[in-house]
Amino acid sequence: QVQPAESGGGVVQAGDSLTLSCSVSGGTFVGDDMVAWYRQAPGKEREVIGTITWDAGSRHYADSMRGRFTIYRNYHENRAWLHMNGQKPEEEAIYYCSMQRDDVVYWGQGTKVTGSS
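The structure corresponding to this sequence follows.
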């Protein structure tokens, strides 16, 4: 079974940039797959950051996430990326990648980004 796998989390200080990666174990991203990035801070609901469609590369962002987050994919590496600028310590969260194929959503285990003030 396919499952997204995130990597790249770590400790960030205010103003840092960080790039997270999402690949797929047990398969590859193909066709109309939609890759989404979410985050979940301690004690809060999981919130969407944005999405990208695999073949077309069309991107959409949640209104509150526009400006500092960029989602892109590398077609040949078969990876999706989330680049974050100007990190804030309060943005400490577990960042998740999901893949929607047909009507099924597959979730990764998440990668933790820890804020350091």
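The chain has a mean pLDDT of 94.
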